[in-house]
Amino acid sequence: MESITTKNAIVHFNMNVYSELNKHIKLSNPSSIFILVDTNTHDYCLPRFLSNLESDDILVEVMEMPEGEDHKTIDICTGVWEALSEYGADRKSLLINLGGGVVTDLGGFVASTYMRGLDYINVPTSLLGMVDASVGGKTGVDLGPLKNQIGVISEGSMVLIDPAFLETLPQNHMVSGYAEMIKHGLIADKGYWHMLTNLEKLDVTVLDKLIYDSVIIKNNVVMKDPHEKGLRKILNFGHTLGHAIESCFLQNADKELLLHGEAIAIGMILEAYLSVKFCNLTKDELTEISDGVLKSFSKIEINSQDREIILKLLKHDKKNSHGKINFVLLDSIGKPKLDCEVDNNSINEAFNYYEKL
Description:
Blueprint: E1 4-5, E2 10-13, H1 16-28, E3 32-38, H2 39-44, H3 46-52, E4 59-65, H4 74-86, E5 94-99, H5 101-113, E6 119-124, H6 127-133, E7 141-143, E8 146-150, E9 158-161, H7 171-188, H8 190-197, H9 204-224, H10 239-250, H11 260-278, H12 283-294, H13 304-313, E10 326-332, E11 335-341, H14 344-356
Parallel strand pairs: 2-9, 3-4, 3-5, 5-6, 6-9
Antiparallel strand pairs: 1-2, 7-8, 10-11
Helix pairs in contact: 4-5, 5-6, 6-7, 6-9, 7-8, 7-9, 7-11, 10-11, 10-13, 11-12, 11-14
């Protein structure tokens, strides 16, 4: 598979990733190499990665963080910054983030801010990381329950996508990443949407080409608007309500945590309903989207108390401007519309629609 050039990085695929990584290390000659993993990728992914890494006499240190969205915090960043300092990292050091979206988001932020910027490489090990989180330069952490409130846009040198890592994933994490692929189809490519929703099953054997297509879609958008001044906002379809739902479940100890993709799946159905009301999406398309999403994602109970919390959390969405909540909606499948204002009554109607599905 041909490598994809982004604004400041290159995305490599399959076994080509290790030859490109080792070539980069030889050319850049880092003073030291640090590998950030979480507790899962330490056990299931690090051995494969280290067996393909050629570091010669360069010091290699592994730093481990806890697994999960609830650890995507500034406190964990502080721990990683301190570890880098204790191990003597300097501005010629290289940080490799080996993990899912939490590791690549947090690790990218750590690298972009330590000594005002280290070279870093993302090696996503989850489907979500491969098709979305690790590509495009968005880095950062959560602020309490508020998703991605602290961060910078800063690309590393490379993204290395080795689908063999997907074999280590539980099925719910595979499906979580699938939500972002569905989103790519809904905002940019009706044919890709139909291909995804007609898959017999989601497994590694069919994912190579689909991952590649998703990275192409995302990169085409990011290249035109790297700092999210306009067009890049379309990548947030399903995320305005999805992030608020994810945050609501994250801050409630009595609820089981929702994976990112599980929350975004709900958000896409809700925002498709709003697209019928405020844009030109047809009711038939709404049904098609709802059925397509629910083919892979189970319905989640969201009670009236949850709704109140979600509506309050919407005020913190990063697309908001001048106190107005701005949504990305759809005029039709494959045709998004930016900066749509939506009232709370309509959002409640959308929840009622989801509840009855």
